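Hey L., structure's done. Input below.
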Amino acid sequence: MVSVIGLDKEKVAALCEAATAEVGADKAIQIANFLCPGNYAVSGSIEGCEAVERLGKDPAFKARMTVRLAVAGAFHTQYMAPAAAKLQEALNNTAISTPRIPVISNVDAQPHSDPAVIKEILAKQLTSPVQWETSLQTLLGKGLSKSYEVGPGKVIAGIMKRIDKKAEITNVIA
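Output:
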């Protein structure tokens, strides 16, 4: 995975298309995480990641920076399909209760309460891009007025401020 900083999502999608064209469709790369404006993670083959890092510096794209992420897989892409099938099988044999509060899915940024739908979406999460930006916008649109980031650092607070400068988020160090 590679973090691409300083481009809008359309430009990052074009960067992924250019990288995939360079390395071949069998080594494709795609947006895996829509974090916030100007900050997206892409995932796919190693060759695709290398092409994104190289092409990101090209004058046609002008990414402010690309950063290789220390992960062990091409998460949130079609490369995870075999794992998604196994996860779906395990979820089919798992009891999930109806939540008291709807779950906002990062697959479609919508609230869900039906356990069968939640199971389906959990498996889809492996092969679908994370809609973090849209998920936070959904929460804000539903009246989220205060949130907390638990643990060291202020990554989530920074992302939230890029989505909505007025959002109130407090850091709690456990």
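The chain has a mean pLDDT of 94. Strands lie at 2-5, 29-36, 39-44, 65-68, 103-104, 111-112, 146-150, 168-172.

-- N.
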